[in-house]
Specification:
Elements lengths: L1 H31 L17 H7 L2 H34 L5 H13 L2 H14 L6 H26 L2 H9 L4 H29 L3 H6 L6 H11 L3 H26 L3 H12 L1
Helix pairs in contact: 2-11, 3-6, 3-8, 3-10, 4-6, 6-8, 7-8, 8-11
Length: about 270
């Protein structure tokens, strides 16, 4: 009992230390967003929201913000379409090179972002494609597809084939089976994958650096102003906004990925039939 208790204490302390190491710097940045001074120092002279207004009325920041939103939305839409189609194809069919195709689909998320960015930049230069908004979207879609693909494929593998067979036995067509059985079963995985893909795309900076050209997304705006150090108070405010905006889809995705009630209810219905 003493050994078990000591183990729990050590593991709990180690986990707490890791969490503090990860989140204390983030908490400090969030606090600095309310710093009334334009000089970062500790302790603060007080708390103020005066930088929030000036940050929002910064035209360059707003332009970068909306560009990031639009790029993330389009990249996520592409990822949902292509990622779900790839998941369906690899789950349903077995062919020579099946595992190799699966590996190639997952590879972009495993590679360092700088390698993916350099590869895309070389590809665009080779074909004479000017860097623009659409090259940003293509770059983001390369790793967003992986997120959706993994989520949908995992849910499809958890789905009992008897559900589809029961639907077919009852006279449903392929489209009806997809609409009334398959789509409800994978819906939470599809939405959670899309939310995670959006969150990753919105704050991606490395791939964007190699695919943006003259375009200025929000992560690039943040990086540029940190390097120059002239607008640090506004940067802190934007970082706080980005953290909140990224946190929302991540939390929603986590809750959706735990939702297996649809699977259980469908399986119970199939057994009763």
């Amino acid at each position: 009992m003493n050994e078990n208790r000591a183990t729990r204490v050590v593991l709990g302390s180690w986990t707490a230390a890791i969490l503090l190491f990860l989140f204390i710097p983030i908490a400090i940045i969030c606090v600095y967003a309310f710093n009334p001074s334009n000089v970062q120092g500790w302790p603060l002279d007080g708390l103020s929201t005066k930088w929030f207004s000036s940050t929002w009325h910064n035209d360059e920041m707003r332009s970068a913000f909306w560009l990031s939103i639009k790029a993330a939305f389009v990249a996520t839409t592409i990822a949902i379409l292509l990622g779900s189609l790839a998941a369906f194809g690899l789950n349903r069919f077995r062919f020579f090179g099946h595992q190799a195709v699966s590996l190639l689909l997952v590879l972009p998320i495993a590679l360092p972002g700088i390698i993916t960015g350099m590869a895309l930049n070389s590809f665009f230069q080779f074909w004479g494609i000017d860097l623009s908004y659409w090259t940003i979207v293509i770059g983001h879609a390369t790793f967003c597809i992986v997120i959706v693909f993994n989520n949908v494929l995992a849910r499809l593998r958890q789905t009992q084939s008897s559900l589809l067979e029961a639907s077919m036995d009852l006279g449903a067509s392929g489209w009806q089976t997809f609409r009334y059985v398959t789509l409800p079963v994978i819906s939470t995985a599809l939405i959670s994958g899309g939310l995670l893909a959006f969150a990753l795309s919105f704050d991606e900076v490395i791939v964007t650096t190699f695919t943006a050209g003259a375009q200025n997304t929000l992560p690039l705006w943040i990086f540029g102003n940190i390097r120059l150090g002239q607008q640090l108070p506004e940067v802190n405010v934007v970082v706080l906004w980005v953290l909140l905006l990224t946190l929302i889809p991540v939390i929603l995705a986590q809750r959706l990925m735990r939702d297996t009630g649809v699977l259980r209810s469908r399986a119970a219905g199939a057994r009763s039939v």
